Amino acid sequence: MQILLQEAWVCVTSLHAPTFMACFIDRQQAVLPPGSIWILSQTAQFLIEFSLVVLAIGMTLLLEVLFFEYYLQSILLQILESKWHTANAQSPSCFDRGKFVFFMLACVFGMMCGVVLACAISIHTFSQLKFSTSLSEKKRNFNRMMSRVLIIQSVVPLGLVLIPLSIALGLILPFSTGPQYVSVPISICFLIISTHSVVHSIVLLTMTPIYRRKAVDLFRR
User: Pfam family example for this protein (predicted)?
Assistant: First the structure.
């Protein structure tokens, strides 16, 4: 059950990537002038999002494979512990975190690629807003505000997922077969990661004007 919950959390968190990317692409497409080479058809946008969804689900499947092997190792450890001392049974030859390190590396690499792409799209979007002649001042201000809100919202997974995950990975890599005292800071990192969904929801409600007004009206009732 615990493994299933962890896999579900990874799946839901990974699916934030296509959602954010769809928002960044939509912001960019909304400010492009007619005839721009950067205009994407609905089919192209769908294919981009579909590929990101497949990658997000693929991360969950990768975790499923790793957990299956971890489950087999746990059974082996139980057998060994009945015959040898626990400290000897948990030696590096029996308990290898290398594949979990690969999973974390894949997560960090994927998020870094997403950050770079989102930054590039944002820079291009603000450039279009600055020099666009096809948008009225009202539409330009609205799109500029929504783009800034989107960037602020996207900082949440950056600060609560990518950075703690990178720190945990940096601790696991040199000490994967050594001292166990690094388990405390690693646990703190994953505790921070677990707050991502709640914090993101709060930021979404407070930073998006239409959601903020609806929330205020709901509390007034």
Answer: 7TM_GPCR_Srh
Give the integer Cα–Cα distance in Å for 20 and 113: 13
Look at residues 212, 108, 79 and name the one whose alpha carbon lies nearest to residue 167. Answer: 108
Nearest CA to 163 out of 104, 106, 108, 117 is that of: 108
> What is the length of the chain?
221
- Which among 29, 112, 107, 31 has a CA at the least distance from the CA of 66? 107
The answer to whether the beta carbons of residues 4 and 42 sit under 8 Å apart is no
Tokens of 78: 């139980």
Residues 6+ apart with CB under 8 A from 208: 149, 153
DSSP string, 52-102: HHHHHHHHHHHHHHHHHHHHHHHHHHHHHHTTS-HHHHTSTTT---HHHHH
What is the number of structural domains in the chain? 1
Which residue is it, tokens 């900082």? 155
This prediction has a pTM of 0.71
Please give the pLDDT value at position 95.
46
| Range(s) of the domain holding residue 36 | 2-220
CATH number of the domain encompassing residue 46: 1.20.1070.10
Contacts (Cβ under 8 Å, ≥6 apart) of 141? none
> What are the distances in angstroms from CA 211 to CA 77, 114, 200, 201, 215?
51, 26, 13, 11, 6
pLDDT digits (tens, 9 = 90+) for 101-144: 777 777 788 888 888 999 999 999 999 998 888 888 888 988 99
Strand (E) positions, 93-186?
none
